[in-house]
Design goal:
It contains one helix and five strands, in the order αβββββ. It has one helix spanning 2-11, and strands spanning 25-34, 37-51, 58-65, 68-75, 81-88. It is globular.
């Protein structure tokens, strides 16, 4: 098992990503390639979970588009991932907040952590 981790460390490109977790509102910039054109698109929403580690680590972001919830799973090591910026930190008690999917209105609010400075 340790041999696999050592090989993965060499293959993974180290990115400068901020520390974030479930309940945080983030904006993910990722590259979209359409034919020969390339552009950067933003996806802003609440982090539902982070899972995996090393080369297989992913995180799930949920946003509301009109009245429809849209979720997207991003691999941390993806070459299409451009940058991540933290909008606000959320105070939640769980590492995976799937209960957030059924919430609407006031119950869908997440308390903001105090003493948070934007970088």
């Amino acid at each position: 098992m340790n041999i696999i981790r050592e090989i993965q460390k060499d293959l993974i490109a180290v990115k400068d990503l901020p520390v974030f977790g479930a309940g945080d509102t983030i904006s993910v910039s990722y590259k979209i390639i359409e034919g020969v054109k390339e552009r950067i698109q933003q996806f802003q929403g609440v982090v539902l979970q982070r899972r995996g580690n090393g080369a297989t680590e992913t995180f799930t972001v949920r946003k509301m588009s009109g009245n429809i919830g849209v979720e997207r799973i991003f691999p941390i090591t993806s070459p299409f991932l451009d940058s991540i910026s933290i909008i606000k930190r959320g105070a939640v008690r769980r590492a995976r907040i799937f209960y957030f999917r059924e919430r609407t209105g006031k119950s869908a609010r997440i308390r903001e952590k105090k003493n948070f400075t934007k970088a």
